[in-house]
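Appendix C reproduces, verbatim, an entry submitted by the partner laboratory led by Prof. M.T., so that reviewers can inspect both the input and the predicted structure.
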Amino acid sequence: MSKVAVVYWSGTGNTQAMAEAVAKGAEGELFSAAEFDASKIEDYDAIAFGCPSMGAEQLEESEFEPLFESCKPALKGKKVALFGSYGWGDGEWMRTWEADCSGAGIDLACESVICNEAPDDAALAECEALGQALK
């Protein structure tokens, strides 16, 4: 079984609820963005990153995006998955994030999970399945 880290940033609690479901499915360790850094990546076989859409369809800029940028070089060869919630738009921020990963040579282990506002039971089930795909 893979050792899985679930790293997230949440402003309203929606992405945190998703992260908890991913961690449950992965039987992994849960970290807020402030609790994780690139030096911890080598300790894990797989990492799920969760961040909501902010502003003009982008990752949270002050804490999460700098963390993710610092982690990117160490993610090649790891199982990586993405998830997050959004309040407007159509999920463009996730497509941009996926393209950024692809451009950096990061292979995503499964389809990303996004939900509008608070995750419902179906979205939480998708998050658990995302976690299970990383095991």
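The radius of gyration is 13 Å. Additional entries are available on request from the coordinating office.
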